[in-house]
Amino acid sequence: MTTPPAPQQPPLYLSTTFDVPGYRIARPLGLVWGTLVRSVGFAKGLTGGFKSLRAGEVTEYTDVVNTARGHAVERLTEHARSMGANAIVGVRFESSEVADGLAEILAYGTAVILEPLPTD
After folding, report:
1. What is the dihedral of CA 28, 29, 31, 33, to 10 degrees?
2. How are strands ordered across the β-sheet holding 13-14?
3. Are 51 and 91 spatial neighbours (Cβ–Cβ below 8 Å)?
4. One Pfam family this chain carries (predicted)?
5. Confidence (pLDDT) at 17
6. Which run of H or of E encompasses 69?
């Protein structure tokens, strides 16, 4: 017996600005966030630590941060969908070290309902 696939949800619009061309904010729903605390891991930390001794990008850390931001955005959009939003405006990211080797990645913004502007 196979399970039917879950219905696809329409994409949620994310913007770093508060104005969305062609739309108006019909209703602000409130603050939404997605957070993730991530460890680099021993192997990547060791490799990255050695690479940080020389100039240039430390790709092990870049990969960890990019993956963590992606997960934070997933949680951000889940939070907004639970409020009935179809968009998030004013999206921002913050990161901080919460303990030795642990970084918090926070994505936040304002959940809103957008409506298309009338066309003449």
Report:
1. -120
2. 13-14, 87-99, 102-116, 23-39
3. no
4. YbjQ_1
5. 96
6. helix 59-82
Work out the widest C-alpha separation in the chain, in whole angstroms: 61
Given this model, what pLDDT does residue 56 score? Answer: 73
Q: How many C-beta atoms surround the C-beta of residue 87 within 10 A?
A: 21
CA distances from 84 to 29, 72, 75, 91 (A): 8, 19, 14, 17
Q: 66: part of which helix (H) or strand (E)?
A: helix 59-82
Per DSSP, helices labelled H in 23-58 are 42-51
Chain centroid to Cα 84, Å, comes to 18
Q: What is the pLDDT of residue 39?
A: 80
The rounded average pLDDT for each run of 10 residues, N- to C-terminus, in the chain (120 residues) is: 69 93 96 89 45 64 85 97 97 88 91 93
> Which pLDDT score is estimated for 63?
81
Topology given in CATH for the domain delimited by 13-38+69-114: Translation Initiation Factor IF3 (3.30.110)
